[in-house]
Amino acid sequence: MTGPAFSWETFLDRHRQQILDEWQNRLHKQVSARYAARPIHELGQTTANACDAFCRLLADNDYTCINYFISEITRIRLEAGFPLADVQKAFELFREIVIPILVAKSPGPLLCQNIEAINQGLAYTIHRFSSHFQNMHETYLKDYARRLEKDVAARTAELKDSEQQYRRLVEEIQDGYLVLSKEKIEYVNPAFCKLHSVTPNQALQQPFLVFVAKNDQDRVKQIITGEAVDNTEPEAFEYLRKTFEGNCLPTEVNFKPSWFKGRAHHLCIVRDITRRVEMEKKSRKMERMAYIGHLTASLSHEIRNPLSSVKMNLQILGKNQAFTGNDKRRLAISEREIHRLETILQQLLDFAKPMALDLAETDLNQVIERCTELLEVKLNQQDTCCAIQTDDTLSPIMADRSKLEQLVINLLLNALDSVADGGNIVITTAARHLDTGPFAVIRVQDNGKGIPGDALPYIFEPFFTTKTIGTGLGLANVKQIATAHQGRVEVKNIQPRGTAFEVLLPLTMPGQLPF
Fold it and tell me: Which residues is 253 bridged to in the sheet?
């Protein structure tokens, strides 16, 4: 009597998709994180190749396909850094998936024989794979060790040469150091990179003029391309350097012809002189302010008393009914001009004397409302609309209320001078958080004629003005008051027309000093 028939090829072909789906799913979820990270389509292709190789082994006792698959999967998994145990477990999944199907589908008399065939085929596969994996891993390690030894030897030689260069070029000096060859940078030290906010790779082989402000490029080019005078000490000269962010900062550079790597070069030392320039500027400003203070103190008494007398007499004459018509108008003009002279003298006194603050909790919104009320008549006379947009959530700040009122009034008067009749002024308050902390902001914006671009850097300088009538002290006082409160003032022209001034004052908790 003929026994039950069983074909491995028919069995594996019939259940192939079921085996592949389950194998791929378990590889992705159960084996390891490395398998979980592999693309699904790659796992599907790998399991398909493995299943076909096992089919040839079980059906025809043909080891060709499984041997080839073992070689390929060993190389792939070794290059990807898979541990041996992960791949062994992946092979074991085939047995875990197939045996339950065999139990259900294999003829009973052949079940033990078929399970044994699976075990023998898998034992051969795992044993051969493990041996092949270890052999390839040892070969890989030996090759890697040889490459590493060679790289270490080459790198050691480079480091020795580099160390000698760094010692010669004084690597750790605080000033920027660079080597120029035909106007291009051959070497820079870290200090140069820090000064210009670049990395060495961003600086090397770049023309030095890339790091020079546009207005100074012609002058610097003449110096670095000029003939060097032998036996003379090179002179340092100043220019504006340009950083990677586009800032232009005062710098001093000293060029010296020399030799580097057997060729003629320029050795250069670059030094930041921002602090020195600022100190010189402050020193000149202090000298000027001291002179102004001395002059103002000397003349104020001598000028104020005669002005008061003249003003009082003009007021008395103005009440005389004998003066009519043009005579009356001339007296009014004279009195108005006397008042303007008194205002100028008061501005000089305010600017010249040291700023003393009477700090108290101050509501900026109330300051704004108070100042607009004081200027209401002047605003109406000029038919100017002044819109107020205050932030009701703005916290009080520690400040001198009277000084802030003076600041706001100066900004409003400046805006009034800028706008034509029927113009608009918008004054706002807000809170703003900057890198240095929270600030209260007062913004005064107008739709006037704006400020010429070439005048913007100088508008806060004392006695600088673009008006036909004015002392140039209004904005200087604004800056002085803002600085005294540890704040600052900024200005920019608004498109299509107008100007915006922003005063930033430190926001502090009630009762806390801002400095």
Answer: 237, 270
Residue 443 pLDDT level (bands cut at 50, 70, 90): very high
Q: 347 in a domain, yes or no? A: yes
Last residue of a domain, one of 233, 253, 272: 272
User: Around Cβ 268, how many Cβ atoms within 10 Å?
Assistant: 22
Q: Which two tokens stand for residue 145?
A: 């060790």
Highest mean pLDDT among 255-269, 357-371, 466-480: 357-371
Q: Are the C-beta atoms of 237 and 223 separated by less than 8 Å?
A: yes
Q: Tell me, yes or no, whether 515 lies in a domain.
A: no
Q: Tell which of 120, 143, 166 closes a domain.
A: 143
Average pLDDT (284-303) is 67
The reply to whether 376 and 502 lie within a common domain is yes
Whether the predicted model's global pTM rises above the 0.90 cut: no
Give me the percent of the chain exceeding a pLDDT of 70.
Answer: 85
Burial of 40 (0-12, 13-18, 19+ CB in 10 A): exposed
CA–CA dist 362, 407 (Å, integer): 14
Residues 390 and 477 in one domain: yes
Q: Find the domain containing 335 and state its range.
A: 283-352
- Please tell me whether residues 28 and 139 are part of one structural domain: yes
Neighbours of 74 (CB within 10 A): 23
Kindly give, in sequence order, each residue whose CB lies less than 8 Å from that of residue 297, ignoring residues fewer than 6 positions away. 352
Strands 385-389 and 424-434: parallel
On whether both 73 and 130 belong to a single domain, the answer is yes
pLDDT winner (highest mean) among 180-184, 249-253, 382-386, 428-432: 428-432
Q: How far is CA 84 from CA 94, 310, 480, in A?
A: 17, 107, 75
Q: What is the dihedral of CA 170, 171, 174, 180, to 10 degrees?
A: 80
For the stretch 4-52, pLDDT in tens is: 678 888 888 888 898 888 888 988 888 888 888 888 888 889 889 988 8
Distance CA 70, CA 53 (A): 10
Residue 272 structure tokens: 């930041």
